[in-house]
Amino acid sequence: MGDMIWTMRGRGHRATDREAGSVGRSDTGRHGRAGPARARARAGAGRAERWRLERVLGLGLGLGLGLGLTGACSEPASSPADGSTVDPSTSGEVEATAAASSTGEGADSTAAEPPPPSACAEPTDLIGAPQTLAEAVDFIDALPRPLTLDCVLQQLERPLPLNATHSTVSLQPAVGVQSPRVFIFYGDLIMSVAVDGDGRDLLEFGELVSETQSVKAELEFPLDGPVTVVDATEQVLDTMGTKCRLCHGSEGPSDAYPMAFVSDALAFRALERVELSRMHEERAACDPQIEPERCARFDALLGFGAVVDAEFPETLQTIYDYE
Fold first, then answer.
1. What share of the chain is helix, strand, coil (3-state, %, to 5)?
2. Which three-class secondary structure state does DSSP give residue 245?
3. Alpha-carbon gap, residue 4 to 127, rounded angstroms
4. Among 202, 190, 128, 139, which Cα is nearest to 163's?
5. Across 83-87, 102-106, 197-201, 213-217, least confident range
6. Which pLDDT belongs to residue 91?
7. What is the mean pLDDT of residues 71-83?
8. 112: pLDDT confidence band, cut at 50, 70 and 90?
9. What is the per-residue burial (b if ≥16 Cβ within 10 Å, else e) of 245-282?
10. How far apart, in Å, are the Cα atoms of 190 and each of 139, 199, 239?
11. Least buried of 22, 46, 301, 311, by fewest C-beta within 10 Å?
């Protein structure tokens, strides 16, 4: 199983990891100020003292001292929970910052949302961040059966590094901007899924073995039994090598894995990119009563923790560079 980065975590721990970015309420506002009963007691003591002084020293002097005592009895400005001093000139900024933190302003808007229903057949605490094809297959093999692709996606470690395209030049094409093809990046491993359409049941793998080439493999879901690396490499084979050669040039046998072939690794043009913000919009607008599978795929990708932008290596060419 090698140095695979996947762990068993308790549910509470995992929920904490996936909800990173949400900020709890500060205790300063709750404990930093005196309670109403204490404030009333101070005010009553101030009034009694002022009346006594007025009787002794006269009304004018009593009023002056009374005003001083009233100021002295006012509630002090609240201090941070650690006991440090707050500059009164910046107290407004501190309160504004605390308010923004408590509402999660500036954080991933999905970080504090409760996760959608699990796509896994039974509960699992297995979290994966596979760096190679072998690690990915080991991770998938350890998940509960029957296994859907959405279960695999939801159990990937967050933040999830994504890059999406609306390109249809692929055996796993996008269905426009509204249902892109999505790439997931961990180390030398690039995986891809389709939100909808042809290829939505396929998880494609490309493990970089050089700056410009990768080993290709694929698994089709759902899975009912065990799976091996050979299952993944054999699935892309045809009589001439692999079906990947239709888009990826310079194909040849590879000794990285049994039955494996290596070919050019390709990126997509920047103008074909679908931004993560658009994916969030499509997820929010998706109606599970009308498009249950498409909505479930968006949930598996975006609903179980933070996602971040990822970039293809600069050394990769595009399919248009072959022309």
1. 35, 20, 45
2. helix
3. 11
4. 190
5. 102-106
6. 41
7. 42
8. low
9. beebeebeebebbebbbbbbbbbbeeebbbebeebbeb
10. 15, 16, 25
11. 311
